[in-house]
Write a structure and sequence with these properties.
The protein is an all-beta fold. The chain is about 0% helix and about 75% strand. InterPro entries: Beta-barrel_OMP, OMP-like, OMP/PagP_B-barrel.
């Protein structure tokens, strides 16, 4: 039986979008991970393992603005008027990205331990 603890750097590309509103945001974030696991021998060549990891990529805040302007030609729709419509859509968000990961596996060792003979 082998029990262990692990930790280190975690990173990933995260993004958010609202296509109907024309808003999007994305970026790569770095954070940290920590976990523990164990590997247990079944026989000389086979083992099973289980591992748990907690990952934290921190907080994310973003905002986007999309502006649409529609201008009608002079005298449309009514003679003498020029219609201009401007729509501005602003979106913002704030979130924190964390994850819990459980891995389960089966290992097969192809050869036995190397023993030096003198």
């Amino acid at each position: 039986m082998l029990l262990y603890a692990t930790g280190g750097l975690a990173y990933g590309h995260l993004g958010a979008s609202a296509p109907a509103m024309g808003l999007s945001w994305g970026g790569t974030k770095a954070g940290w991970t920590v976990g523990a696991g164990g590997e247990f021998a079944i026989d000389r060549n086979w083992s099973v393992k289980v591992e748990y990891l907690y990952m934290d990529l921190g907080s994310f805040n973003g905002a986007s603005t999309a502006t649409t302007t529609v201008a009608n030609a002079l005298n449309t729709p009514t003679p003498g008027f020029n219609t201009v419509t401007t729509t501005t859509t602003t979106g913002s968000f704030g979130t924190r990205f964390t994850d819990n990961i459980v891995r389960v596996g089966v290992n097969y060792r192809f050869s036995g331990p190397v023993v030096a003979k003198y």
